[in-house]
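Field guide to reading this record: the first block holds the primary sequence, the second block holds the structure written as discrete tokens, and the final block holds curator observations. Each block starts with its own label. This record concerns G protein-coupled receptor, catalogued under organism Pristionchus entomophagus.

BLOCK 1 — SEQUENCE
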Amino acid sequence: SFFQYFLEILRFVAFGLCILFNGMLLRMISMSRRNDLGTYRFFLLAFTSADIIHGIVHFLVVP
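BLOCK 2 — STRUCTURE
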């Protein structure tokens, strides 16, 4: 049906946006050399990496 087709397309778009934006955030955090981030940088890197992994697993597991 059209609704199932729409949900399938939405799943691919959401996965692509997840990888794109989290990848951009990961790059911005790792390239930033400002000291005001401090150890908070590692917290941000961990959560961004976990979000990318979660997006990949969710994309692969959902039927």
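BLOCK 3 — OBSERVATIONS
The mean pLDDT is 93.
The helical segments are 2-31, 40-61.
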